[in-house]
Amino acid sequence: MAINILLVFFALYFVVMFLSLGFGLLPGLKKFFPDEDPFVFANGFIFFWIMGDLLMRFFMQKLPVMSVKPLLTLPIKRSTVVNFVLGKSVVSFFNFLPLFAIIPFGIMLIFDGYETSMIITWIFTMIILVLIINFFNFIIEAFSADSELSFLPIITVVGVLFALNHFEILSMTTLIGSGLLAIASNPILIIIPIVILAACYAFNFKILKSKLYLDSSLKSKVAEVNAADLSWTKRFGDVAPFMQLDLKLIWRNKRTKSMAFLLLIGVLYGLFFYPNPVYADMVFMFALIGIVSTGFFLINFGQFIPAWDSGYYKLLMSQNIKYEQYLRSKFILMVISVVLLFVLGIPYVYFGYKILIAHFAAAIYNIGVNTHVILWGGSFNRKKIDLDKKAAFNYQGTGAVQWLIGIPLMLVPMALFGLVNWLAGFAAAIALLIVLGVVGIVFHKKLMKGITKKYLDSKYKMIDAFSQDN
Amino acid sequence: MIYTKDLSKTYKGTTVLNIEELTIPKGQSFGLVGNNGAGKTTYFSLLLDLIQPTTGNITSNSVVVNESEDWKPFTSSFIDESFLIGYLTPEEYFYFIGELRGQNKADVDSLTSKFEDFFNGEIIGKKKYLRDLSKGNQKKAGIVAALIGNPEVIILDEPFANLDPTTQIRLKQIIKDLAEKQGVTVLVSSHDLMHVTDVCERIVVLEKGNVIKDLETNPETLKELEVHFASGATVSQEEE
Looking at the whole model, is its pTM more than 0.90? Predict the structure, then answer.
C-alpha cells in the first residue's frame, strides 16, 4: 500500500468499520441469533479474529529496529534500547484499531445489563490479548527472517492452529472463548494472559538483544540487482533514458514498488461499488469511479512528481537535460497506466454498458486533463521523499498540495458529469468528459510548455527544499 | 574562461560569499581551500546554478550561468552523494549520464575502462546498487561519472575525502592529466592542504566568504598555507 490521499481515508474507513462493528455487534447478534447469549457467542469468534490479526500484522507491521542505530554508541544500556524498541511497537495503529471495536462493544454490553466489573475485566483481557498478538507476531517474524521461505513460519503457525480447530482435535474456538469467559467471571485469572504477555515480551527481549548489532539485524539489506530488458522504451525516442530511469525507480524502491500493485487495486476498485444495487441508479458515481479506477496509478504516482527524484534533484538540475523530456517521460507512463487500467476494466460491462462508456470517457478525461493537472500540481511540491523508507502508512512528502490537487482531479469531473447528466442526460455528460479530454490532448504540447516553465520557475525553491531533511 | 564578477550570496542578512572578481583561465587546475563555512560549496553551487546569487554573476565560456542553460553541455560536476542515483548500478548510472551527454554505451565503456585501476575492481560488474556501496566507492563512481562526455569544466567538491590513500594518489594523477594534457578546467575544493598543493596550479583561500589569498603554486605554497591556517587558529579546524 502506498501513501496517498486515499490512505488517510483507508485508515478512517477502518476506524469507522471497527466502530460500527463495536456498536452494531450486540444488536446484530440479538437479531440474528436470538437464542444465543451474545457475549458468549462473540467470544467464540475471537479465535478467528486472532488469526486474521496475526496474518495482517505479519505482512504489514515490522519492529522499528532501524531507528535505534544512533542510540547504540550512546551511553545507554543495551537492555534499555531493547525495551525502547519493544515499547515503541506498542504505540502502533494495529494496536489501537481493535480498541475502536472492543470498547464500544463492552459499553453496549454494560448498558444491556451485563455486570460492569465482568465486562471491564473482559476489556482489559482483550487489550492484553492485542498486545500478546503484537509481540507474538514479532517472534514469528524473527523466525521468518532466518528462514529461506519467509512465509513458512506464519503459515505453519496459522495452519496448525486452524487445523487443530477444524478437525476438532483441539477446539481452539471453545478453548479461547471459554477461557475469556472464565477470566471475565473470575478476574483473578487475568494473571494467565498477563503471564503469557510477559513471556512473549521476554522472548522478544532475548531475541532482540542478541541481534542488536550492526552486522546482524541492524544491517541494511544489500539487494540483488534485478535488471530487466527495457529496450522497448527506445521507441519513445529521446524520452527513453528517462523512462528507463522511471521504471527502475518504480521497480527498485520500496516506496514506489507498492505502486505497481496499485494497478491491481485500480482494476478491482469498481467491485467495491458496482455489485451493490444501491449504486446501480447513481449514474453520477460512474464518472468518479471511472476516474479513480483508470487513474489509480496516475493519482498515486503523479502527486509526488518530481519529489520521487528529490534524492538526486541537484544532479538532474546540473546535467545537460531538457526539462520537458523529463516531464514527458512521466506523462507517457501515466497515459500507459490509464489505457492499461481501462482495458483491464472492460469486464465491468457485465454491470451495464453505461459503466463501460463512463469508464471510457473517464479514461479520456484522465489522459487529456488529469495528467496535465497533476504535473502542474507537482511544480508546487516542496517535500522530499526518501525512497528507501517503507511504504505502508508513510506520509513523507505529503503536504497541502496532495490534498488540494484531489479537488480538480476527482471532484470537478464528478460535479460536471453529475450536473450535465441531471440537466441534459447521460449522453451529454459523457460527451462533455470526452470533449474536455480531447481538448487537453490537442493542446498537449502547449500545456507541457506552460508546465515546464512553472517547474523552471520554481527550480531554486525545489532544490533547496529537496536538500532539507524534513 | 570562468569569470566571476561582484558575486555575493546572502542568507537572512548573513553574507556567506562575496567575491569581487575572480578569473579562472581555461585549462587551469584550480584549488579552493578554506575552513568549514568559508563558502567553497556555496561558490560551486552558484557555478552550477543550483542557488541564486544575491548580486553579481558568473560567466562560464561567455555564458552567464544563471541566465542561460548553455553551460550545461560542457560542464560536469560531483558535489555530494545527491549527485548519485541510489537505485542504479554504477554501470547503469554511467550509461544514464552518458545518454544525457550524448555518449553511447561504447563511448562510456571505453572511458570507464581507463579507470580500472582507480576503481580497484570494486565498482564495475559487482551487481550492486550505488546506495549499497561504501562512501569511498560511491565517490569513485561519482567522480568518474563527472568525466563522461568530454566536459571542458569539471567541478569536484572535496574529492579526496573518504578515499583510501592509494585512490587519493591515483585521483591526483587523473586531475593533473585532465588539466595538463586535455586542457580541462578543473575546480577542486579540499580541506587537505597537501593534496591541493600537489594537484593545483593555483590555490585560492576563502575565509568567511571572502578571497583572502590567491597563490600560484610553488614549492613554498604548502608552508605558506600551513602557516596561514595555523595562525588563524581562532577559527576552529576540527575537520580533517
Answer: no
